Amino acid sequence: RNWRFQRSSMSKEIHKLWREVRELSLGTNIDRLDSPPSPVQFLRDYVSQSKPCVISNAIAHWPALKLWSDPAYLAGALSNDLVSLHLTPNGCADAVTPIHDNKSTGDLCFASAHVVKVPFPEALEAVRSSTKGKSVAYLQQQNDCFRTEYSTVASDCDGDIAWATEALGCSPEAVNLWIGTDLSVTSFHKDHYENLYAVVSGEKRFLLLPPTDVHRLYVRRYPAANYSYDPV
């Protein structure tokens, strides 16, 4: 009884904190800026408060915005480069997934994608021909993949976001690139970094939750697994 009482009391306090943070700190709207902020404004209004924002016209000068809109350009520029292609049957990599085998009784696992290194043109075609239920391909690889696997086209973008670098007091530790379709979904996760996302083509949708929403995430432990893809 005491344990139940303590848990109930803690739950009430967590919900109270959750409401206060939303009402007094975060608000209900995302700031949209028509141009990049100054380093001081970015640090003061967003980084220090852990508040997200959407910034327009921040990368309009990048050659990538024009060049990458043509798939033939990327296929030609990266024709000799091997890149990491992630494959899943449903577009959900690094996600809690039912175990499909004869021994499973509704058990769940944390399933990661099947990863294979292939020439970029082949990888791009796999992404563009993705079909849910068969094979959904996604080009990505953490740990600074843009400056390693895609270094051939790195000059199409700035090496960093100057005003963000000044605000944060350091250069980017990692620069990553994601290429996919609307079939690819990233599960809820937490990042231990300050992140900036530059959308070169298409769109990317985010659902962001503050740390005070942890009670809504139902964090659990699951056995790890990997998809194994047989193209035959």
TrEMBL record:
Pfam family, one: Cupin_8
Coiled coil: none
PROSITE patterns membership: JMJC
InterPro entries given in the database record: Cupin_8, JmjC_dom, RmlC-like_jellyroll
Residues of the signal peptide: none
Residue span(s) of domain JmjC: 137-232
Cited PANTHER family: BIFUNCTIONAL PEPTIDASE AND (3S)-LYSYL HYDROXYLASE JMJD7 (PTHR12461:SF99), HYPOXIA-INDUCIBLE FACTOR 1 ALPHA INHIBITOR-RELATED (PTHR12461)
Family the entry assigns: Belongs to the JARID1 histone demethylase family.
Protein name (record): JmjC domain-containing protein 7
Record organism: Noccaea caerulescens
